[in-house]
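ok so i was messing around last nite and threw this chain in just to see what happens. nothing serious, just curious
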Amino acid sequence: MWMFKIAIALAGVYAAIVVAAYFLQTQLIFPAGLVGRSAPPPGGRNVELTTSDGETVVLIRLSPVGAETGERPVLLGFGGNAWSADAVAELLHRIFPEYEIAAMHYRGYGPSSGRPSAKALFEDAALAFDHLSRQSQAGVVAVGFSIGASVAVDLAASRPLKGLVLATPFDSLKELAATHYPWLPVRLLLRHRMESAATLRALTLPVAIITADNDTVVPAPRSKPVREAAADLRADTVIAGAGHNDIYERAEFVAALRQSVEAVSND
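result:
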């Protein structure tokens, strides 16, 4: 009898965890509260874009240094789920001072209003592209980091990007979550759908991929399908000894990112 009671109690605890995971998934996937507000890099200017449902999405823009606007494509950056767009813009501007840089504050992050979701991020990325493309003669290259790589891939499916650069991308948010939480029915619970490999498989634009060989957040089985899905893979770099979060501190990453942007930008 006591074993039956213990089993019932454990089942109740498990059910409570499943329910909590379902209702808290947005905060876990998009921890906007951990990012907070940040200051744009020197010279950066914020552009407010209005979404179809009346929210305000803020795009930060940085002009190129020592180059004429229009000589090179605009680099549109999408950060990881705990990144500020200001940090994305600063990173890209430091590595690519000769390019115009733009980065999008996700909904609910920093100065952008609303509530983040995969669907909202995808729609807002298209809004950012439309704003930039009206002013860029050389096109737009999307640079996505981690979850931002999924945003970049989805954008490529709906807008004519010049190229894609994906750093530490995963094939499917559903499969990634299942990898980390095999004891939860995440494939049934997940409301936010990001299927980068499946989306990329239908595209033909130039792609470059950078991964970390010691990545425990996005392990190799989750990045490999992205690589295999790219029909025009111009560059594929694995940073030795790097992890998911410290990859950006490495000189090899800077060199790989520059090589990747050049590879997808050349016709």
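not much to say yet. The first strand starts at residue 45 and ends at 50.
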